[in-house]
Amino acid sequence: MKLPYAEPYRIKMVEPIFPSTQEQRSEWIKSAGYNLFNLRSEQVFVDLLTDSGTGAMSDLQWAALMRGDESYAGSRSFHELKDTVERITGFAHLLPTHQGRAAENVLFSVLVKEGDRVPGNSHFDTTKGHIEFRKATAVDCTVDQAFDTSSPHPFKGNLSLEKLRKEFTSTPKEQIPFCLITITCNTSGGQPVSLENIRQVSALCKEFSIPLFFDAARFAENAYFIQQREEGQKERSIKEICREMFSYGDGMTMSSKKDGLVNIGGFIALRDKALYDKASTLVIVYEGFVTYGGMSGRDMAALAVGLDEATEHGYLHSRISQVEYLGERLLKSGVPLQNPIGGHAVFIDALKFLPHVPREQFPAQTLALELYREAGIRGVEIGAILADRDPLTRENRYPQTEFVRLAIPRRTYTNNHMDYVAQAVENVFARRDEITKGYRIIEEAPIMRHFTVQLSPV
């Protein structure tokens, strides 16, 4: 008989979490303005709000923390990180930042100006926010299959070459500072981009002399999907695939809180020394000296170890198998999900789950709140609230998909927790026809409103 799968690690430390009653949760979420971001962590039983900075570090990472060099300039930990990044990505020039959105802030401050258009595959919230804050436009060139949650397309993060060529030919070159590939594509459901698509996008960018950058927060998970799903890649190592992926681009931003396996940090990695020099000035202004940026030496040391661990098959197989475990159980129960299951999260299709809740009453947010009340599980809306308002008309934007994302922290929860989550979702699904009304906004910020929005039941 074939042996069952077992995680390639054992638990050395635990953190207690505490259940609560539905009555308590109903009061807590009301006090939080029906915004799950406003809850205290102790009011949450299973926290699937994000996989960003919420994972568990390894013993080798904790050991590296103790060896961190906190020198203001020329830190040994910086050079260890720089060498690791160059070995995995091929990019020789490194600028640490305190997290991914800081990396975007620095790079976009150099490259993006008012009136620009930045094509890519479903830019995520901070990326789009940084673009629109500069009065530029994020142009979604994702393949159409990404918006059909029932489609089995294995690489729903792919860019449409037809859409991209149309953008390149209809917009003056000086108004396209770069093309951006997000790996994996969070907004489309944690979906990967194929190596072939990256090659093709790179060739198209070269044809039009437009730089190509990566939002690489989950690059290792993307490489794993390439290895598992793309023809001719099965026998290659994750690190080999990563090196080839990045060989087609000019640079990357990274939120190290995802596939860096650390709790804080980010970086910019570049091929061009002239661009590095320009960005260095802004890193010094916004973050810190170029050999620490926004990070401590100990965190850079842990990140160097984490990047190596995250690009090994054993870790990635364990991590993505747990996400698939939750997704497959929900699919068997008839719960509508984005298919195939993504790399870091299960994305529930709220439009199919709650068809009676009008779009203007935010069905994904409504479902996320029901799930919290049901079992103390905190997910996040990836829908109209996150999509924000059109910067010109100030009308709500309604994306083609409305998701509740259940993001699984790395090396943190067991499959018993996944069973608990699945049963809670199934309980809500069983009474879905009773949920006919959603929420209205009573207070919101002018940009990236989902973090602080205040809501009221309709």
Automatic annotation (TrEMBL):
InterPro entries named in the record: ArAA_b-elim_lyase/Thr_aldolase, Beta-eliminating_lyase, PyrdxlP-dep_Trfase, PyrdxlP-dep_Trfase_major, PyrdxlP-dep_Trfase_small
- Has UniProt tagged this entry with the keyword DNA repair? no
Query: What keywords are annotated for this sequence in UniProt?
Result: Lyase, Pyridoxal phosphate
Transferase as a keyword of this entry, yes or no, is no
CDD domains membership: Tnase_like
Domain of life, per UniProt, equals Bacteria
List residues, modification N6-(pyridoxal phosphate)lysine.
Answer: 258
Names of required cofactors:
pyridoxal 5'-phosphate
Stretches assigned to the Aromatic amino acid beta-eliminating lyase/threonine aldolase domain: 47-423
Q: Which Pfam families match?
A: Beta_elim_lyase
GO molecular function of the protein, one example? carbon-carbon lyase activity
Q: Which GO BP terms apply?
A: aromatic amino acid metabolic process
Gene3D superfamilies (UniProt xref): Aspartate Aminotransferase, domain 1, Type I PLP-dependent aspartate aminotransferase-like (Major domain)
The name of this protein is Tryptophanase
